[in-house]
Amino acid sequence: MDYISTRGSAPALDFEGATLAGLASDGGLYVPAEWPRFTADEIAAMAGLSYAELAAKIMAPFVGESLTNERLLELTTEAYGRFAHKAVTPLKQLDEQQWVLELFHGPTLAFKDVALQMLGLLFEEFLGRSERNLTIVGATSGDTGSAAIDAVAGRAKVDIFMLHPEGRVSDVQRRQMTTVLAPNVYNIAIEGSFDDAQAMVKRMFNDAAMTDRFAIGAVNSINWARLMAQVVYYFSAALQLGAPAREVAFSVPTGNFGDVFAGYVAAQMGLPITKLIVATNVNDILHRALAHGDYSQGTVTPTAAPSMDIQVSSNFERLLFDLGGRDGAAMAAQMKGFEATRAMQLTNAQREGAAALFQSSRTDPDAMAATIRWAWENCGELIDPHTACGLHAARTAGIAPGTPVVTLATAHPAKFPDAVERSTGHRPSLPARVGDLFDREEKCAHLPGDYDAVAAYVAQHAEPKI
Ligand SMILES: *Cc1c(COP(=O)(O)O)cnc(C)c1O
């Protein structure tokens, strides 16, 4: 399988190349040159596979020649063997129509583990084939950092430098990162905000003094391999609910549009999805874009669902590219306009294409709290604030009664205990596997909000690319 850039001028790469590259050199994002498709019979034959077997089947056409089918199955078996639930992503029924797909049984209690556990193994596999070293640099407001660190800790040929804004992540989130003492893990607390940390990371990707010496890689959802891994659980859930004979709707708590784009990919591959519901909190750029064609950046309002407090959704570009006839030059021009004015209008083709599969909704803090309470009082389930946005959107979406609606549960409620307790009076406890988090030693550098200090720290500790 070839991967092409959404902006049309970067060289095409194979799966291995796209996995190690992250962002394309023309500023675009890599997408497969075409969508692989399964027939209804092929999908029906997937029923009853284990999660690892299903994952290998779904990923095989994307991976192409980069891995044999046997090796791919070994990697999915290893990645998903680390989950605390045997079903990996168990499906729970809430009422006649509503279901939740629990994606938080990985090591760091958020859905990002599903993709990053696999990505960590892919990095190690591909780097092991040559003498290359990879330097991962990222910024996190919480969940991505811990999931990425867990996925690469102790692995050969990879160093990870994870920046977080000092004092602005929760104690659980910080300790999930800083108590990993593996020598290739470098946590850096930065004076300033998440946006300051993120800006330093972007600058480093474009700093020739750094990129000449180090192969700097990305672990956020601009990396195609992450999205590929997320396609699997759409198939897993739909198969359990009777696909391909029966259609299913999904409601997806959304920030960077990565998780819900994986649902779009599943639909392109032949999975019968009636609707993909894009659930935002009050940071609603995607809701405005899908409902009115208006993709314009507002200011971020902090909410109880911080992983969705985003005003620019990187992966939306992948959807616009596909709906706009895969015209890289047009996409480059559209994104250039957005970067200059922080606003753009969707074309008619993009709006109509999106309306065929997507609908969207925005959940305010009162509805979020009321939905957490509803799930507890009516179903005995504690859900986290991100999942609550999804479930609120699902319950108000007007999907026809015979069609099951699956909300993706993106974080364990114990990651956000205060919000859950405020709505239900119950404080969710951390699962036993992370229970001694508060007794472990922490390791973290503290640096000023100054790019040169951060670059010097990375240069001092990272392995050069060859
Ligand atoms: C990252 C995250 C999201 C948003 O996912 P995207 O792929 O960025 O849309 C939602 N919920 C939780 C808990 C997350 O960590």
UniProtKB/TrEMBL annotation:
InterPro entries on file: Ser/Thr_deHydtase_PyrdxlP-BS (IPR000634), Thr_synth_N (IPR029144), Thr_synth_N_sf (IPR037158), Thr_synthase-like (IPR004450), Threonine_Synthase (IPR051166), TrpB-like_PALP (IPR001926), TrpB-like_PALP_sf (IPR036052)
**PROSITE patterns given for it?**
DEHYDRATASE_SER_THR
What are its E.C. numbers? Answer: 4.2.3.1
Question: Needs which cofactor?
Answer: pyridoxal 5'-phosphate
The residues covered by the Tryptophan synthase beta chain-like PALP domain are: 89-345
Q: What class of enzyme is it?
A: lyase
Q: Does the keyword Aminoacyl-tRNA synthetase apply?
A: no
Spell out the reaction equation it catalyses. Answer: O-phospho-L-homoserine + H2O = L-threonine + phosphate
Query: What GO MF annotations does this protein's record show?
Result: threonine synthase activity
Q: In which pathway does it act?
A: Amino-acid biosynthesis; L-threonine biosynthesis; L-threonine from L-aspartate: step 5/5
UniProt KW keywords: Amino-acid biosynthesis, Lyase, Pyridoxal phosphate, Threonine biosynthesis
Q: Where is the Threonine synthase N-terminal domain?
A: 3-80
**Entries under NCBIfam families matching the protein:** thrC (TIGR00260)
The similarity annotation says: Belongs to the threonine synthase family.
Query: What's this protein's name?
Result: Threonine synthase
Lineage, top ranks = Bacteria, Pseudomonadati, Pseudomonadota, Alphaproteobacteria, Sphingomonadales
Q: Give the gene symbol.
A: thrC
